[in-house]
Amino acid sequence: MNASVAIQTLPAAENDEELIRIVDEVIAYIKGTGLKCYVGPFETAIEGDYDELMDIVKECQHIAIRAGAPSVLAYIKVDYRPEGDVLTIERKVTKHHQ
Question: pTM of the prediction?
Fold first, then answer.
């Protein structure tokens, strides 16, 4: 695993319920990839291969639009180490959730 991505998808929506519905569709897609992920209150972190993660980031925007958002903003953080492993989600947060 040479990359970790945190993505916050912010679709334009008429109200909070619609926003949550669209974001839930994006999260369901991310979970469906089978990659290790961690859903937080502001963003979702995903671990895997850099190129695969970039494809997932791109698809998250398409999913929000297909779900009915007229536009979408995304905030993305990327930790990429082409020749080594990045710190895992587990190593970063497990001690805070026991």
Answer: 0.92
